[in-house]
Amino acid sequence: MNDSSKRPIAVFDLDNTLADTAHRQRFLERKPRDWDAFFAAAPHDPPLPQGVAMARESAEECEVVYLTGRPERCRRDTLDWLAAQGLPEGRVHMRRDNDRRPARRTKLEILRRLARTREVRVLVDDDELVCADAEQAGFTVVRARWATPSDELKVAQEREGRT
Questions:
Q1: Lesser CB count within 10 Å: N end or C end of the chain?
Q2: How far apart are CA 56 and CA 2, in angstroms?
Q3: Bridge partners for 93 per DSSP
Q4: What is the pLDDT of residues 87-135, one digit of tens each?
Q5: Do residues 37 and 29 touch, judged by C-beta distance below 8 A?
Q6: Phi, psi of 64 (to 5 degrees)
Q7: What is the C-alpha separation between 124 and 58, in angstroms, rounded?
């Protein structure tokens, strides 16, 4: 049951929604993929202006929550990056370090958990499979289509459960 006395929440993905990962895609194009280097480069992601503006606008009416497939070991870098971009403060939900389930499963699980106590006003994400499953579950979704799509990142999100 939702607590209607609390502000609704707006949920934002990070990679290719708020953060431009194009400069670190090269680490996923190698065989084997260099995940350590991919995540180590995340603090240098340029912000995506459309996503950042949407998060700031959402904060006027909603509590902003971040939902990412990044592993928990990236928490400090992620929090520092969010602060450096002037993004609204908010809880950050991250994947456990060894969780390799597809992003659409892990993110939908967290969305449903959040919705048990709060109204989830919107999910903003670039992953088409996450968006489709969230819509099917009854959530309002904005597809973040302002970053250059990456086939390598899609594979990482769905098949390898890495981000």
A1: N
A2: 24
A3: 67
A4: 999 999 999 888 888 888 999 999 999 999 999 999 999 999 999 999 9
A5: no
A6: -90, 135
A7: 11
Cβ distance 104 to 130 under 8 Å? yes
Amino acid residing at 142: V
Q: Which residues contact 113 (CB under 8 A, 6 or more apart)?
A: none
pLDDT(31) > 70: yes
- H/E/C letters for each residue in the chain? CCCCCCCCEEEECCECCCECCHHHHHHCCCCCCCHHHHHHCHHHCCECHHHHHHHHHHCCCCEEEEEEEEEHHHHHHHHHHHHHCCCCCCCEEEECCCCCCCHHHHHHHHHHHHHCCCCEEEEEECCHHHHHHHHHCCCCEEECCCCCCCHHHHHHHHCCCCC
Cβ neighbour number for residue 94 with a 10 Å cutoff: 20
Closest CA to 61 of 134, 119, 147: 119
Please state which CATH number belongs to domain 9-158: 3.40.50.1000
Distance CA 145, CA 110 (A): 22
Whole-number Å distance between alpha carbons of 51 and 128: 16
